[in-house]
Amino acid sequence: MTTAAIFAEGFKTTPWWWEWAPPTAEGAVPPPKEVEVAIIGSGYGGLSCALELARSGVQAHVLEGESVFGAGASTRNGGGVSPGTNLGKGRAGYGKSSLEQRLGAEHASAMLAEAAESFGHLEELIRREGIDCHYWPTGRFVGAAVPRHYDRLAAAVDKLQKGTNAGVRMLPKDRQHEQIKTDAFHGGMLVDRSGRLHPALLHRGIRDAALRAGATMSVNSKVTSVTRQGSGFVLQTTAGEVRAKEVVATTNGYTGPELGWFRRRLVPVRSYIIATEELPEDQVRALIPNGRTIADTKRVLSYFGQSQDRRRILYGGRASFAGDTPENTAKTLHGMMTEVFPELKSTRITHGWTGYVAFTFDALPHFGQHDGIHYAMGCNGSGVVTMTWLGTQLGRKIARTQNRPSAFDGVAFPTRPFYTGRPWFLPVIGEWYRFRDRMDRWLA
């Protein structure tokens, strides 16, 4: 099959999710001159913060720089949700640099427990607000790319299970066909308390819930500067000046120079996803029998799963570190997908898209306050659950309704010397990761 032949007629470079829930400006109003809390960014974090504040009787307004709400990662991600089993998993993978080493045993335990709690919070939010986002508690399987990765996963299982109670256990290679029809992995780790959902429908549901609660929102209101003035702030936006008592920043992988301190602590990395054409349902079920979300342990990782109607495979990964086009990266992802599922070589792609993931230098999400600005950022690829939770925690903190401090609050937010927020080094690191992945396979 030629590379040109992999594209279905009418191939789109917008997310497959947008076929059902495209971002809109519904509910937008002009930004107010004054507000109690101004929230920068209309992703999961900003909307969840606005919802919690409005439910607590605090006036909150969301400022979105684009012409629609949720044009960023909240409607572009892969739709996988998990209870914190990736927490602190950096370049070294599981088990190399533990949370205990960085934070101490007590703090690490509290953070894992809160990460597990955040998963239940998302489930409760979906139920409470009646959000029809096709939530599907399928569980997760992390495939070991080489045998020693299986050993690394196995070394982390007990701590992950103890910390999250998520049904974490190992599955040897001779049984992996119970979860995925491939010989590309060498066994892997199962996580029962995980799932899939439609991220764009979740975003729309949280937005609508915040509006019902009394929050207000504006589009085309890009914040260009934030200045402290007296006991509050002045925000200059492309739609005019806004004065606020409190400011919340939840821009994550889309953080601009107007929030320079935060930008220097975030590494925006493009992730890419493709959607296959419709396939026979029995074929899709055979490839992933229990519908679990799948990820692997490679440095240049992949993550994938079934669509909720069990008619497509959605396959994502780091197809480029240099910012290539969705068309070119779709070809790369198609090749990565067929390494796992050779029977899909003749399957065409209907959608290929990209969005930014915000990584941090310590592989942890960060939540707190800097120079008076509240923030929640840096989810390292686990933003659906994490940003929804941290946005809610920010709302509770500002409204003074928290029943206890968050374990994520105030953890040192590191940067690197001379880093300005432009990750010029990513192509070099990407090639190094690919070389290391090849070496792992060769040594195996």
UniProtKB/TrEMBL annotation:
It comes from the Bacteria. GO terms for molecular function: oxidoreductase activity. Pfam families: DAO. Residues 37-392 form the FAD dependent oxidoreductase domain. This is Glycine/D-amino acid oxidase-like deaminating enzyme. One of its GO terms (cellular component) is cytoplasm. Keywords: Oxidoreductase. The keyword Transcription regulation does not apply. The lineage of its organism: Bacteria, Pseudomonadati, Pseudomonadota, Alphaproteobacteria, Rhodospirillales.
